[in-house]
Amino acid sequence: MFEIGFNETGAVAVKGRLDAAQAETAQEFLDDVADACILDLAALEYISSAGLGVLLRTHKRLMGGQSGLELVNVNKHIADIFRYSGFDKLFIIKTA
Amino acid sequence: MKKRYRRNFDQIQVIVEDTGRFFSEQGITDSLRMKVDLSIEELFVNMVTYNTETESDILIEMNALDGGIEVSLTDFDVERFDPTLAGDVDINAPLSDRTPGGLGLYLVLKMADSIHYEYDERKSKITFTNRVVGD
User: Fold this and answer.
1) From CA B37, how far away is CA B18, in angstroms rounded?
2) Residue of B32, B107, B108, B133 to mutate, testing the A interface (most A Cβ within 10 Å of its Cβ)
């Protein structure tokens, strides 16, 4: 199961498994984000390279406008994937 | 466990469910799930995406090891492609130079404790193992 949407704080909440089957859904949602954005990953259980690609494409687009993505409430397993991928050097990441 | 899967991303969810069942039945620690799920998905997606000359189902086999798991994915009637020779990714590159391409196989190679490729009679088979750290 995968869900993405704005939560009550205005952050984008991502829930479930962001895999290759769900990457297009996530990308379509994030393509409509036009300014700096906080991604709340508290309920993100899993991410593969397809999901990482969505984050990277969105971050690069937003950084073109001097904003970008901030990844918050990242659990240990997801943080490990970000570290293996070098995303810890590209994004502001706040662990849970 | 030995099962064939259609060449479609909608099979990822089925594979995840089958993997969870296998872990539970074999008493394999959930601490390996993220690595195993990710490696299976990346290799499966790579076969589906790039081995477009075949319509054969992809065979996935799982065997419990002492303190871990061995997983094989086999694609039939395809050209040779050895994922263990995939190019490196510069994870220290600045954002402007980063692209999503190649990250999947890079992660598989990074996370597997061992990985082995075989190619014979147009059959492409990749096998990896993951074990609990310290075992």
Assistant:
1) 11
2) B107
Tell me the one-letter amino acid at A86: G
Residue in B37, B99, B103 closest to A85 by CB: B103
pLDDT band at B134 (very low <50, low <70, confident <90, very high): low
Spans of chain A below 70 pLDDT: none
Contact across the interface for B98 and A77, Cβ inside 8 Å: no
Q: φ, ψ for residue A5 (rounded to 5)?
A: 180, 170
**In angstroms, rounded to a whole number, what is the distance separating the alpha carbons of residues A12 and A4?**
7
Q: What is the ipTM of this complex?
A: 0.92
With b meaning 16 or more CB within 10 Å and e meaning fewer, what string describes B25-64?
eeebeeebbbbbbbbbbbbbbbbbeebeebebebbbebee
Residue of B nearest to A86 (CA): B91
Task: Give just the sign of the alpha carbon dihedral B6, B10, B14, B19.
Answer: positive
Chain A residues whose beta carbon lies within 8 Å of the beta carbon of residue B90:
86
pLDDT digits (tens, 9 = 90+) for B11-70: 999 999 999 999 999 999 999 999 999 999 999 999 999 999 999 999 999 999 999 999
* Composition of chain B by helix, strand, coil, percent to 5: 40, 25, 35
